[in-house]
Each structure stands twice: as structure tokens, then as C-alpha cells.
Amino acid sequence: MLYCALFAQVFVCCTSVKQKSANFTFQTSNIRKEVNDLYNKMSVEERAAQLYGIRPQEVMTDGKLSLKKCKEKIPYGVGHICQFACALDLGPNELRDFVRDLQEYLVNETPSGIPAIFHEEAITGFAAKGSTIYPQQLGVACTWNTDLAREKTQQTARSMRAVGATMALSPMVDLIRTAHWSRVEESYGEDPYLTAAMGSAFVEGIQGGDLRKGVAACTKHFLGYGGGSKLPWKEIYEEILFPHEVAIRQAGSKTIMTSYGSFKNEPAVASETLLNVVLKDYLQFDGLAVSDYGAVGYISQSDPESLKKTATAALNAGNDLEFPSGSNYKYLPELLRKGLVNETRFEEAVKKALALKVRLGLLDKKAKLYETGNLNLDTPRDRETAYKLACQSVVMLKNNGILPLTEKSKKIALVGPNANTFWCMLGDYTYQSMQFFWWGGKIDPNEPKIVSLHEALTDKLDADVTLNYERGCDWSESNEASVIREGDPRTKRLKMMLMESADVTDWKKAVKVASGSDVVIAALGENPTLCGEARNRKGIRLPGEQEKFLKELIATGKPVVLVMFGGRPQVIDEVEKGCAAVLQAWYPGEEGGNAVADIILGNVNPSGKLSISYPKTEKQEQYCYNYGVTSDNIAYPFGYGLSYTSYEYSNISVPAHVRTKDITFEITCMVKNTGSMAGTEIVQLYASPKSGQALKPIQLKGFTRVELKPGESKKISFTVSPQQMAYFAGHQWIIEPGDYEFKLGASSSDIRLKSTCRFIGDRVNMDLRNILLSASRQTFK
């Protein structure tokens, strides 16, 4: 009933036309004055123009900026230039020059002289030609390395700022509970805590603490696009919303993107409940809410009257900006004159849009809108970070001792459709994927250099080792994948292709090569045609005839190392037993070939741990480890991953009693490397209620990466808050007295230590929790 009442109040407020000035706290007093002064000088057409964007092609002729088209298309200026880099076949300097010329038009030829925000995808780095390609986000989550993830987005921000981009349409913090969803690769997996920690690191890195030098993040999709938008409120607040809450309240994200989907049976882009009750009232968000591309138009028909109705509904509900164009919002001046659009809401949206430009430094007197000189968007340091992330993202699922390869392996067979290609290194929303699929462009794998597994092994193997390569089989079958119209409106222009290889595909020859080898490396799995937005596969086993091909390789009797690339876990239940080792490499980016090769050869000890439960079957059940029961359908649990060494946990210390009103308490343990190789263990802290609290049976509450030399020990300390054990009920957070069991382990099902703590004192009720994540530290012992 409380939500119904709040919804009714918000609805009345947002649909009635008010004349008073908008009141918002997005800026400091200095910013507010600058924005108010600018707003008062603008015509209604100029104001409305700040609330939508255009694509770069709309103001170009023959690949160049056209001032004539600028004057026709954006005479009053424009808020954003949308996906300007991935849509254009321009190198770094050319791209910067395009930005320079368009900004000069906006500053010098439009009435208010307001520069645009150039925004772009940045989930795997800046999606621009020649820019560093980092591992896809699902793989980054498997590193459990927030520091390196933060470094990655700091580098991304530098590249974006160099050419003049000031907003990233990232990160995606949707929780994913099934590998069947085509966009699982863009997520950080299934767990709210891990997703929140990684998403927060992304935002902190790309914004850099000073938006005049950094890039504005845009967390998405708000809310429950990956699943969960119709769950009970308790689960929505405790899990689905949590990564967004951390990104907004802790990391300072000032832009969120709603989804194409619905929330509680309302279109998300025009949901009073979502945009007001949840976002503004609960999260106290004072930033910008932007639509996913075309989402405003998705709730309307193509006729003008329908477009006007949806523009009214979206803006009045709280959606500030329409992307990628103003197909609906271009009618706002007319709708204002007719009294259909809430004037206060319109003023608020425009001022928020202007305030972000002030915060980004775009309206400074000597604004630095881009870098001069020759630009390098793929520096050695960037590549080093990409390599480290790729190494740490690879998860070793199985190893019977074959890895790392020894000197006995003198003849190596490298086979499979992903053995000698750059495509398996790239996820969706890289420049290459976007340019190829959405715009039909040609891809140069040397700009930047994308290292294949074949290239890496050829370079790294000793001279006395023979590497024989045969492709063997195709990626897929022509009828296995299809295009769906979910999501991006450009989907209708996407023609599915299977990306034919220039290499000869000879099945029998590949099997013969395998038979004559000491060991077989089978590089299989997906490529971006088979996983990504708007791409739908019939199942999630190895695609095409790859499983049949793998069975024949196993039948040779030679040890087979299966290396799987792709954007999701793939079911291998029928072939796993026959494999000597299994590596899950995801989409590892430009340095993926080197990373995988170094793990196979033992130059790097694998440390990746699963950020998503790995399915054993193709059942489309929703599953998360925190349901509390290990499913018969799960092959490898959340948090799982093998190493070339072993680790021993000991000496857990948990307070016997903690008061419910205490701020924090400490949990400690010892971890020792008991093997013969240096390695990194990811220590995971879980909590389980022992009494009757309304919490999930097991929940991740902290983690840390511990680098250990052979025989070395470290003391691990977690600083935890009772607030992290609060549950949501009756529109409040409640900390319940009682017994809580804290567990330390190598995965959600490999618990090494546990101890119980009793929360004493009164029940605590809170409107908001102030401590959302734990902290950790390490000391030598």
C-alpha cells in the first residue's frame, strides 16, 4: 500500500503543469547560478535541443562534416552526438578532427554556443578504431580485481578525452541468472555484491574524481533488464537494485540509463514507480536519467501524435534525455505550448543536462574539448593492462596434470575455429563488433593489433617444439543463430553472418594432425555472431558441429586441452570427461592470445574465478548460488577456479558478539601457498543467517586477491558492517539480532573455514544503509 500511495503522489506531481522554477541539487551553488543564467537566455527550442542527440552520419556528406547539414539538422544546437566513434571508420586523429569541427560549429554558429557531449560505448574500452580492446566485462568480473578494473577505466577515460568524448554508456550492472540471455557477456555475472564492487570500480576509474578531466559514467540498465524487474520488492531492493545503489551513492554515478523493457508492468523509460519512487525518492538520485537507444519510440507508433504522447509520458515521468535522436522529444516545444508537458519537469531536465556539461568543463571559458597533436589510443601501458586483465580473467575449470605443458610435449596440434582468428577475442560493443555488424565496415586486426592464439603460441614455443595448425571445423551452422528485434532499433538492419575464415577447413586433416601429436589444443566456442545484443542461439552447447569435432579429437587418445572462447558459459557435460584440461577464456581482448598461451605454457598461473554459475545442462532455469542449494544442473559453482598451486586456510577469527548498532567488526584468517609455484588466491567471504532472519541462505560479503610465493603466508582481514546483514521489509532496512555464520573459502561451495557471530541488542531499522561494501587488507605473517 505504501508503494501505491507514493506512486499516486508522484504521478500527480509529474503530470500537472506547474509554473514555479525547478528545484534540484545536481550542482553546487556556483554551477546552479551558471546554469540558471544560461537557461534564462535560451529559447524553448534551444532548451529542447539539449534533451536529445543525433548520430554523426546525420551531419556528414561523403565521410566529412557538412556545415550545410549541421544548419539543417541542428540549428539550435544539440545535447549529444551519439555513438560517434564506433559508427565511423576514422583513426584517432581523424576522429578528433571530426569532433573539433563539429564543436566549432556548435560554439560559433548556434545561438547559445553550447558544445555537445560526445558519448560512446566503453564496456571493453573506448569503442573507437585503434583504441585498446580490454576483455569483455564478464571476463573482467572473473578477475575479482577491482584495482585493475579501475586502472582499465582510467585509461579508457584518457583515450576518450583525447578525441573529445566525455560520456561512456557503461558500465552494465544487470544481474544475470541464466547463460541463455544473449547479453550475459556484458554483465559482471549473477552476484549483487561482486557486480556492485566491479561496477563501482568502473565508475570511479572512468570519472576519476574530477569530471573536468574524467568521463561521465552511465550505469545501466535501470532496472532489471537482465531479469528481475517483476520480482518481489524485497529481492529487487536487496539484489537487483544493489549494484546501482553502490554506483550512485558510493561511486558517484550521475547518469543512469533505463532499459527497453518494463518495470512492474510499466515501460521502464516512462515508469513513475521506477524513476521517482525508486530512483529519486529512495536512492535520492539527482542526476540524469537517459533512455536506451530508441526506447522512448518503442512505446509509440510512428505517427506524430503517438510520438508526442510518448514524449510527454517519458519526460513527465522523469526520463531526461532521449537517445539516440529526438524523434519524440523534438515535439517538446509544441507540447509545452499546449500545456501537455510539465514545465517544471522540462526545466529540471534541461538544467540537469546543462549542469553535466558544466561539471565536465565543456562550458569553461577556455574549455579543453580535445587533445592536440598525434594521438595514440593503444599505448604500451594500455596493452599491459589489457594483458593482465586477460590473464586474470581466464578460468581453469579442469586440469588432470597436463597443464602447464612440459618439455615432453614436442608436437602440439592446435585446431578449431577459434585457433587462428581475432574474432574470438572480441565481445559485443567493441569497435570491431559494432562497426562490422551495425555498419557493415571492414575490420583491420592490426589497428590495434589483436593477437590470436596461433600467433602467440608460434612466438612463445621453443624452437624444438613443432606446432601444427588445422582449423578443422566451422564456428556454426547457418540455421543455429538468428536475429531478434529485442533492444537496439538498428537490429532490423543487421544481417546475420557466420564470419567465414580465410583458412582451409579440413575436418579429417585436423583429426589426423591431432592423432600424430603429443597434445591437442582445441580452441572452440563462440564469436560475436553467436553472442551479443540481438543475436539469439538455439542453445548454449558448443555451437555447430564443434562438440562432434571435439569427440573425434578425444577419440584419438591424445590428451586434449579444451580452450573455450565466448560470451557465456557453454554446456560441455558430454565432453568434459574426455578432456585433460578445460580453460574458459571468454572474450579476452587484444592480448587474449598471449594470455591464454602463457597460461598453457606455465608462464602465468591461472587465478580467475567464476562470476557466474556454470551450467551442466541447457535447462533455462533461473539460478544463483545464493539460493542456497547446489543444483544438479550446475557443473562448476560461483567463485570456482583452479590454480597450478594449492592454498591452505587457517585460524579464522570472528567476534563472538557484535552489537546490532556497531559500525564495523573484523574477520580474519591465514592463507598459505602450499604448492611449488607462485600464485594468486581469491579469498571469498560469505555470510549465512543461523536464526530466522529473512536473508538468502548464503551471500557474498567480501573478497580479496592474495598473491603468495611458494610457502608464503598472509593474514587476511575483512572489515565488515552489521548493515551488510540488513534485510528489506516494509520500506525499511532491518538488522535483526541473532546468530550469523561467516564463511571463508575458495568458492561458494568450497568453504574452508567458518565461525558464528551473535548480533546482540535491539532490532535496528534504517531508511538507508550507509555501509554497502566491506574492506580488506593483507599483512605478512
Write the layout of secondary structure elements.
Elements lengths: L1 H14 L13 H13 L2 H6 L3 E2 L5 E2 L2 E2 L1 H7 L6 E3 L9 H18 L7 E4 L16 H5 L4 H18 L1 E4 L23 H16 L11 E4 L10 H8 L1 H9 L4 E4 L3 E2 L2 E2 L4 H11 L5 E3 L4 H4 L5 H14 L14 H6 L5 H17 L20 H14 L1 E5 L11 E5 L15 H9 L13 H8 L5 E5 L10 E3 L23 H9 L3 E7 L9 E3 L8 H10 L4 E6 L15 E6 L5 H10 L12 E2 L18 E3 L10 E7 L3 E3 L5 E9 L5 E11 L9 E10 L4 E8 L6 E3 L2 E4 L2 E8 L5 E10 L3 E3 L8 E6 L1
Parallel strand pairs: 1-4, 4-5, 5-6, 7-8, 8-11, 13-14, 13-16, 16-18, 18-19, 23-31
Antiparallel strand pairs: 2-3, 9-10, 12-19, 15-17, 20-21, 22-24, 24-27, 25-26, 25-30, 27-33, 28-29, 29-32, 30-31
Helix pairs in contact: 1-11, 2-15, 7-8, 7-16, 8-10, 16-21, 18-21
GO molecular function, one term: hydrolase activity
Protein name: Glycoside hydrolase family 3 C-terminal domain-containing protein
Pfam family, one: Glyco_hydro_3
